[in-house]
């Protein structure tokens, strides 16, 4: 990662902006704060390459509309979206629109720092190769039918209880299938699983 890599934080909550400014600045990033997506878009033509960290739910232009405008523009910046608990389906939609990853609040500091480092590295190398998609498809092929059903439920934001009700199995059994899915897909967390599912074509783009 280059020294003083740029991170553009967009959040309408002043306390959240200050917290992320301190956290990412302490990790060696050059942080630029914006209180709205519009303020960021007004400056984007003059900004250097970097990573965007944005909230999803904001007044005016929200995170989803921001992604749409970035997709239609000439500037391609990696975007990490922050989302509240229960907003997983919204985060999945954001990833379909091109977000690199999503982070549920409250989150661990190290997790965000790791995501930003990964986003900057992937942006530099442009890595979204066909071989990676083929590898994801192979991982999906290793799942049993029930494991695949559980994964579908997880990546669409269903709770263990909801998945258990749908397939008439116990929540404990869903937990076992969920653990198997995470292992076979080599996903460390839900956002990774969603990203892998999108790349494998399990979640339609």
UniProtKB/TrEMBL annotation:
- Enumerate the GO terms in the molecular function aspect: DNA binding
| Stretch forming the signal peptide | none
Please provide the record's keywords in A-Z order: DNA-binding, Phosphoprotein, Transcription, Transcription regulation, Two-component regulatory system
Does this entry carry the keyword Transcription? Answer: yes
PROSITE patterns documented for this protein: HTH_LUXR_1 (PS00622), HTH_LUXR_2 (PS50043), RESPONSE_REGULATORY (PS50110)
- All copies of the Response regulatory domain together span 6-120
Q: Among its keywords, does the record have Metal-binding?
A: no
Q: Which residues form the HTH luxR-type domain?
A: 136-201
Enumerate the Pfam families for this protein. GerE, Response_reg
GO biological process terms, semicolon-separated: phosphorelay signal transduction system; regulation of DNA-templated transcription
* PANTHER family according to UniProt: DNA-BINDING TRANSCRIPTIONAL ACTIVATOR DEVR_DOSR
Tell me the protein's name. Answer: DNA-binding response regulator
């Amino acid at each position: 990662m280059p020294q003083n890599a740029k991170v553009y934080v967009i959040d309408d909550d002043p306390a959240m902006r200050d917290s992320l400014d301190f956290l990412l600045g302490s990790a060696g990033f050059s942080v630029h704060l914006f209180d709205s997506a519009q303020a960021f878009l007004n400056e984007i033509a003059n900004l250097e390459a970097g990573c965007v960290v944005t909230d999803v739910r904001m007044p005016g232009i929200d995170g989803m509309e921001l992604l749409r405008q970035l997709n239609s523009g000439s500037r391609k910046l990696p975007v990490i979206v922050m989302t509240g608990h229960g907003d997983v389906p919204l985060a999945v939609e954001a990833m379909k629109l091109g977000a690199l990853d999503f982070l549920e609040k409250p989150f661990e500091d190290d997790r965000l720092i790791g995501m930003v480092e990964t986003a900057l590295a992937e942006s530099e190398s442009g890595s979204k190769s066909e071989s990676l998609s083929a590898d994801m498809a192979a991982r999906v092929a290793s799942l049993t039918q029930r494991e695949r059903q559980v994964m579908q439920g997880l990546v669409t934001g269903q709770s263990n209880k909801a998945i258990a009700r749908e397939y008439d199995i116990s929540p404990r059994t869903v937990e076992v299938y969920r653990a198997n899915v995470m292992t076979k897909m080599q996903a460390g967390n839900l956002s990774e699983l969603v990203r892998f599912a999108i790349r494998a074509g399990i979640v339609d783009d």
